[in-house]
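Hey forum,

I'm writing up a methods section and want to include a predicted complex as supplementary material. The small molecule is zinc ion. I've pasted the protein sequence and the SMILES. Can someone with a working setup run it? I'll credit the forum in the acknowledgements.
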Amino acid sequence: MQKATNANSIPVLMYHHVTANGGSLSVSAINFEKQMRGLAERGYTTLTSSQFADFITGKAPVPKKSLLITFDDGYLDNWVYAHPVLKRYELNAMLFAVTGLIGNGPVRPHSGQVGVQVPDCPPHKLAKEIMFSENPDPVMLRWDEIREMVSEGTFEIHSHTSTHKRWDLLSDASINKNSSFRHDLSTSRDTLVEQLGGVSDHFCWPQGYFDDDYKSIARSLGFNYLYTTDARGMNVANGDTTHIYRFAVRNRPFGWLGQRLWLATNPVLAPLYNAWKSRSDARKQKRKSSH
Ligand SMILES: [Zn+2]
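Reply by user p_vandermeer:
Happy to help. Structure tokens for the complex are below, copy them as they are.
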């Protein structure tokens, strides 16, 4: 059946962890399953990065209920809990991986397999500590797991730099923010080419930070689609490819996500909602800085 009618805008979902119990920056395995089942049952289309690129540059339309699922960082739990669910519902996602933290070694068990003991996937706070320790392997993906996700069609892999460092905060007389960022991003690009045989032109800012220098560096290294953590706007055809809006998915069943998607794509309500949220963000910021 042809899915006619074109989308006006594409919501981009942002996930980090899918874990057994949820927690900060995490959706529980049960709620993730409910969310993906809800999308599949209601006829949503998960776009690939190139379909999204064609839409946002105005080259080709996409079906009305289209969206993009993204994951940041490259945690092991994406393989253990998200990959089998995406596969079950024939959905696909983009993963922005911190390429320098992806390890080597055999493929570990995942929750779609019967009679296996899946690895422990700790909550975000602990995962973050381990991620930046000497040995990030217990919480991060391995290249062979990534290759399997790619070949099964559940995940595409894109760059999220090699180190996830905030060079703007680390710069001093000895460290230059812009050249450090350029090196970080080009190392990541080289790693993706070496490990996966290619690199896309989609890139996501670590911790959501960017400025005009960073944007021109990313563009000069061949990254044309830049993903932010800014939720206050709509991704429309002929929109700004260097400022792609995303919203964080909460640890809630499909009902919440369904409503959020409806709001995000409603041509009348979405701009009002985004403007209202921007004002409330600014108020919160003001309160914070006055304390
Ligand atoms: Zn990140």
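Some notes you might quote in the supplement: The chain has ten helices and ten strands. The CA atoms of residues 14 and 248 lie 5 Å apart.
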